[in-house]
What we know:
The chain is an alpha/beta fold.
Amino acid sequence: MDAQFSDFSDIAPYDDSHFAEHIALLVKEPGFEHAVRWVLPEIDYSDFVKMLESCKGKQDFQIRIMGHFLERLESHTTSGITATGLDHVDPAKAYTYISNHRDIVLDASFINLCFIRKGMRTSEVAIGDNLLIYDWITHLVKLNGSFIVKRNLPTRQALDAARQLSGYIHHALTVKNESIWIAQRQGRAKDSSDHTQESVIKMLALGSKLPMASSLAELNILPVAISYEYDPNDYLKTREYLLRHRDPEFKKSQHDDLFSMETGLLGMKGRVHISFASSISPLLRSMPADMDKQEAVRLVCRHIDCGIHGGYKIYPINYVAYDRAFDSDMYADRYTPAEAEAVTAYIEGQLDKVDVTDITVQERNFMRTYMYTMYANPLRNKLLAAGYC
């Protein structure tokens, strides 16, 4: 497929030439106004609309509107966002940033906030259409530089959608010179053990007529690690784990997804750290042309995982959780008794939020073990990465 001549209009962000007309439609949506007043209760909506209407395009919108919003969100829901490795990013080049997936909305947003603070260009962002519950949400994310990932399609349609998505990503990088962000897997890792899905890498290679390694190399893939001290959704993931344990056919509702978005957005996250690794294009260019495709995909996944796992920021809760999950005292020197007590209080408090009836003592223990494992896994994977990367 020649990505340059494909039709991406249904999935691509809005072009700046049509920005004003889409803003005009968005601000008339009652649902959008309700959401703005809910997230920013003190705001004068008329003044906010004037500010929106004065934006000249996506970059202006992201800096003046989203950047301001994310700064406020950082001050109210985190203990600060730090970043390392930004020197690995050449501002003149376009990249495919692939990161672990902790929060539905904020992973890519916090990465873009790091770029805004450095005066660097933001990236376009992949977002699943399962989250586009209302038309105004679709308009908002496409104004904000997001492109759409079509989910839950029949097999034949899914392949066509994967080709279109890959074609657009190649088009964005090689024709528009725009960076993009995509998660290393579909959906968040419920136990926080992050591993790149082979299907994501195979999809990325579809959008070019080049051999697989060369196709991926032109995407300039750069792994990014996102470390949240606390995951506001940890108790919701634990709740889902319990309900699936009770009923393997359990499926989340649309309300569950919306509540997860709200909780992740507004819940306390503690310290947040973002670590940029190096582009894996040199590795891809060095791979033999006749290398078995499946072996090549596994190698690419492993190198992305190395970049992510090696970049994790480890907090006291991770050390405490590791010792408790694996019944050890290996990291007792990495936290104080007071920090250990604070972790206990936090975990028990989160477990108290699980709104499932008739939880037995055994189920409470089951959930507690799961939550400690969730916080132990980033440290466990960082240790493993130190041995094989």
